[in-house]
Design goal:
Number of strands: 12
Strand content: 15-25%
CATH class of one domain: Alpha Beta
Organism: Azotobacter chroococcum NCIMB 8003
EC number: 1.1.1.133
Low-confidence stretches: none
Number of helices: 10
Keywords: NADP, Oxidoreductase
Family: Belongs to the dTDP-4-dehydrorhamnose reductase family.
Helix content: 40-55%
Structural class: alpha/beta
Cofactor: Mg(2+)
Length: 294
């Protein structure tokens, strides 16, 4: 790797996966510790004025954007301002910016897979914030890659997967939507994709723009939950005895979560040669890591 790489959010689940995968390929990241109050405009300005990397991966707010159960508007607004400042700094210092985003920027009314050219129309605060961040990055920093992920799952106890497994240990019956569809994406697979993008950008290929990635084989929330529980029972006895199908509209998060969240991955395949991996293949290692940590 010729480029000097900086990773904000190296302590996040996706950041750790990226560092681990990079180390296997002899690729290292400068991963500075965030200030006590977290990254903000002032601390980012000082950091990039001093370090001047060639490319930067922004996972500074990964957990909030992809895993947190609830977020308030003020917190998101602070993160938006900091990311806008980050884009300005990247443009000023001619740093390539790799910025993650999410299926949440779509409203989920389209039954077929969403492509990069489809019109965003987010439902909830998180999706609206991510869309504004996307728009800011595009307008401020031309040398960017925006990478929208499907349903991201990691091994953090307070993440999407962790909260689901905790309920499975405490409740005998769970209800999941059988008409909500998406692309489950284990965090290790997301890290693989990000590293593959960085490798090609290192070859000075000007492949700027927006790309979609999600695990192979779109599925329902119900079918994914059943697969997770099947793997979890290898590690621990669970209280849950039955998963009941419920309509998406009856789900507690229906107002914010798109019903149809399947992403088309043709563009990233045609541009970078990145093939989607089956999400089922990533479940055993993900669950193994989760249960080793809880």
């Amino acid at each position: 790797m010729h480029m000097r790489l900086m990773l904000l959010g190296g302590g996040s689940a996706l950041g750790r996966a990226l560092i681990h995968l990079g180390a296997e390929a002899d690729i290292s990241f400068l991963a500075p510790r965030p200030p006590e109050q977290g990254w903000d405009s002032a601390s980012l300005t000082l950091l990039l004025d001093e370090t001047r990397p060639d490319a930067l991966v922004n996972l500074a707010y990964y957990h909030d954007w992809f895993q947190a159960e609830t977020l308030d508007a003020a917190r998101l607004a602070t993160q938006e301002r900091a990311t806008e400042r980050l884009a300005e700094l990247c443009q000023h210092h001619q740093i390539i910016l790799l910025q993650p985003s999410s299926y949440r920027i779509f409203d989920g009314t389209r039954a077929t897979a969403y492509g990069e050219k489809d019109e965003p129309m987010p439902l909830g605060l998180r999706g609206q914030s991510l869309l504004r961040i996307e728009q800011g990055v595009r307008s401020i920093c031309p040398r960017h890659v925006l990478l929208r992920f499907g349903w991201l799952y990691d091994d953090s106890p307070d993440g999407l997967l962790g909260r689901f497994l905790l309920r499975a240990e405490r409740e005998s019956v769970l209800a999941l939507a059988d008409d909500r569809r998406g692309n489950p994406t284990p965090v290790d697979d997301a890290a693989r994709v990000m590293l593959a993008v960085l490798k090609q950008l290192d070859c000075r290929a000007p492949l700027w723009g927006t790309y979609h990635y999600g695990g192979h084989e779109a599925t329902t929330a119900l079918a994914f939950g059943q697969a997770v529980l099947g793997e979890a029972r290898v590690h621990r006895r669970l209280a849950v005895e039955d998963i009941q199908a419920q309509p998406h509209a009856a789900s507690p998060d229906a107002a914010e979560e798109p019903q149809h969240a399947v992403l088309s991955c043709k563009k990233i395949l045609n541009t970078f040669g990145i093939k989607p991996r089956a999400w089922r293949a990533g479940l055993p290692s993900l669950l193994d890591r989760y249960y080793r940590h809880v």
